[in-house]
């Protein structure tokens, strides 16, 4: 919606839309506009078909090389090798396909939020039509409970309130008006004369002229952003792509070297191909995609126990890489329950209200005085007024308490319950009854009710904006007595002495200012005694000359655990930024309270300020901004993109339709599981089952641990690959191409998937490192091989390959059969890896980590050794793998010699502190 309809008057809107409030549109005009604007529905881009998704998985370089190896194996008669490699390909492709297939959601949920039917005026009559048939210019009837079917300029509002939280982030329903607004640069949440598609009417009635349908609505704009927002690859996906390309390059390079040497020595093409297959299989960790998926799945299971559900497995590790968390305020950082936090009575006393949520457990704590709330007549009278002049309902079912109705009014009822006043009891058995209600409206900025008390007397209970109540007041209740709000005559002279009423006014206004500085929403309460004659007067007359009882400061308070969670993020080098549709003052106060704003250098930026910035300026200020307030969906998307441009790994939390584009764009979108819309949940990668920010911090810890364990696994797996490639190359270079290869393709597959794969899988449950949450986050472009890990993989792999080659060379030199020599090389490499895994599980050395802290690893090592010995000593194993049983002395020698690469290199590292060994 490009035009700023909120600045137009009702008359101007009617004229510009060429419609009539009395008759609406006629049939001919409707047909014309339906042809011009199309159906009132959101357009959906077609996703990839199942076949396209399946074909996409074969673009993985690892899959490509394995597929080539399987084809060559098949045509060269190595059928068992071809089948084994083919099974590995199918498993990896199906796992990747299933993950991507589940991710194709989002727009369907957005479309489901639209209203199915609507009531519009056509040809002078009200008719019910399918919402998709609405056209711009239609006059739409708005009633309580409706879901708005289009964007409308409200032309009539009768106590009309609309819940726009899912679209704007505004935590309370917005009271609507019909008058034009002068400021043309305001956010959606401040456009009080507009109604937006998919929002819900909470109270009142009204009329609106449709000014936007389908993709021309605000929610249509969000749908368009979702359709055109590219889902970014997670850092782990980028790192895995880098590994795949690196391995492909290495494999092709090694095969090329072998081909050149083979051709130089005049080897037949069949033997060159056979050697190339063995090397390509040796260079690729076939189990890598599968094991990574299994490790992430185990992490996902642990995270569910912490109330975090991962939709995308890669997102789990991404959390560990997060450098900035862009968090929504309402319900995530706060409790999503409006509560009375502070109170002020007309005697000048300040109170703090304790207790959590809707629970009646709590009390009014006096500040700087000792009076109990029940001993303060004005406080108790004020709570009686707040309870009776209230349309919300307090519901208590056993230990569970809830409020039905307006959140702010509900906060007053709960506060009264903490002081022992129950609305239902007061009206049923307490002797109070409501005679007549005068609901709140935006013109009066107050509400009142006529109450009959237990003594049969009547009084007017009134609540409203503090300045309005003061303007209508004639006095204050002080210590149970009414003090007139007027100059006091002393010895016939006015204001000769200090006027106590003026001091009360000053104190009252100071309390209002104090509450405002704490970002508390303030309501005043008062009363007026009524005579029988008063009962016949209009309520606008009755709402004059009231006696002020006090003030209540209301807000949605921070969750108790959030401060510690934000501090934990800060200690871990993860910056928390609040991005909210709420007002800047409220957002900043919460941010200071919970530690998001830590110094004067931390900035608060509003949506209107963002509109004046280009993308370069936004990127420049992002590191200094702690709070973005009063923002639109487009702003949120720009903020996330700016963070990513600054090389940040950005997590984004949200619960509404307005959050969906940013959730989709972020490196990890975190949706709320309780309050979140289905659109937000489908757009996110992680769902918080408890809507709690502290759960994100737990997930960050899990993500970091998973990344550590993946690095340990990759170190173990690639070290085995280097060992396998090097033993073949050593034999090829030093023994000549006519000698049998030290390892067959099936032996290599066994090492990669079973003898090495099983123990490496157990690294996925390795306990976390001690400094896990003390490290700074990893940079987006930091590889798995940082901190000399790549060098260590090559050195350890060459050492293991060297030991395996020595075993093979000795057996061949001793006149033993080629199968026996291959079995010696195979056993040496298996045991080298089993020794090495105890060093892989630490970033220091195996001498610094207790081997018994991961019992799963010990079991996996024992199982791997047993199965590998079965390959050597059983008839089935010997038939399939062409092995021969080793003599006992040879087996013991191999087992002990296999420990040398790990023990010697780890000892060297421990003594010299050289990091790359």
Automatic annotation (TrEMBL):
Residue ranges of every copy of the Cation-transporting P-type ATPase N-terminal domain listed in the record: 4-78
Pfam families linked: Cation_ATPase, Cation_ATPase_C, Cation_ATPase_N, E1-E2_ATPase
Cell compartments where the protein resides: Cell membrane
Topology of the protein relative to the lipid bilayer: Multi-pass membrane protein
Keyword check for Nucleotide-binding: yes
SMART domains per record: Cation_ATPase_N
Residue stretches spanning the membrane: 58-76, 246-265, 277-296, 820-838, 858-881, 887-908
Predominant subcellular localization, coarse grouping: membrane
Taxonomic lineage: Bacteria, Pseudomonadati, Pseudomonadota, Gammaproteobacteria, Vibrionales
Record-given protein name: Cation-translocating P-type ATPase
SUPFAM superfamilies attached to this UniProt entry: Calcium ATPase, transduction domain A, Calcium ATPase, transmembrane domain M, HAD-like, Metal cation-transporting ATPase, ATP-binding domain N
Keyword Phosphoprotein found: yes
Protein family (similarity comment): Belongs to the cation transport ATPase (P-type) (TC 3.A.3) family. Type IIA subfamily.
One of the record's GO cellular component terms: plasma membrane
GO biological process annotation, one example: intracellular potassium ion homeostasis
Keywords assigned by UniProt, alphabetized: ATP-binding, Cell membrane, Magnesium, Membrane, Nucleotide-binding, Phosphoprotein, Translocase, Transmembrane, Transmembrane helix
PANTHER family: CATION TRANSPORTING ATPASE, SODIUM/POTASSIUM-TRANSPORTING ATPASE SUBUNIT ALPHA
InterPro entries (UniProt xref): ATPase_P-typ_cation-transptr_C, ATPase_P-typ_cation-transptr_N, ATPase_P-typ_cyto_dom_N, ATPase_P-typ_P_site, ATPase_P-typ_TM_dom_sf, ATPase_P-typ_transduc_dom_A_sf, ATPase_P-type_domA, Cation_transp_ATPase_P-type
GO MF annotation terms: ATP binding; ATP hydrolysis activity; P-type sodium:potassium-exchanging transporter activity
